[in-house]
Amino acid sequence: MKKLLAAVALSVVAASAHAAGKGTTTTIEKPFDEVWTGSLAVVAEEFTLNGAQKESGVISFRSGTQDGSILVVKVDDASTNVTVNAKAARAGLSIGMGVDAKKIKAKFVKKLREKLGLPPVKE
Predict the structure, then answer these.
(1) Contact call for residues 53 and 73 (beta carbons, < 8 A)
(2) What is the pLDDT of residue 123?
(3) Nearest 5°: CA angle at 23, between 32 and 109?
(4) CA–CA separation, 69 vs 18, rounded Å?
(5) pLDDT tens digits for 18-66?
(6) CA–CA separation, 88 vs 74, rounded Å?
(7) What is the pLDDT of residue 51?
(8) d(CA 121, CA 20)
(9) Angle in degrees, 0-180, between the axes of helices 32-46 and 97-115, rounded to the nearest 10
(10) What global pTM score does this model have?
C-alpha cells in the first residue's frame, strides 16, 4: 500500500507540473531504459533522490530549496522525452528561484547527455 501511495504521489506531482507547462522537455536519441538508468544516476550524483517509479517514468528529487521531478517517456524504440521540473519547496522562497530552477534543468540535461555519451547541446 505504501508503494502504491508513493507511486500515485510521484505521478500526481509530475503530471501537475507537466500540465502547468513549467517543465523543460528534451528529446534524447536513446532508448527508454538507457535514459531512465542515466537519469537515475545523474539525480543520485547531483541531487537528493526522493523517489523513482519506472512504470510511470517519474523521478523526484531535491536540490537545496528546490523540489524537482523528471518525467521520462518513451517516444519510440530509439528516442525518449525527458521533462525536468523544479520549483521552490515552500511558499515564500520563490524570489530568485526561477533562476535556480533554470540552472537545475540545464545542469540535469548537460549531465545526462554526458552520461549517455551524447554531445552537448549548443546554447
Answers:
(1) no
(2) 59
(3) 55
(4) 10
(5) 434 468 899 999 999 999 999 999 999 999 999 999 999 999 999 988 8
(6) 28
(7) 97
(8) 25
(9) 130
(10) 0.76
Q: Which of 28, 30, 9 is closest to 109 using CA atoms?
A: 28
Q: Show the 3-state SS of the chain.
A: CHHHHHHHHHHHHHHHHHHCCCCEEEEECCCHHHHHHHHHHHHHHHCEEEEEECCCCEEEEEECCEEEEEEEEEEECCEEEEEEEEEECCCCCCCCHHHHHHHHHHHHHHHHHHHCCCCCCCC
pLDDT tens digit sequence for 65-104:
889 999 999 999 999 999 999 886 655 544 444 568 888 9
> Per the structure block, which three cell numbers stand in for 44?
543520485
Tell me which CATH homologous superfamily contains domain 2-115. START domain (3.30.530.20)
- The contacts of residue 6 (CB under 8 Å, 6+ apart) are 51, 53
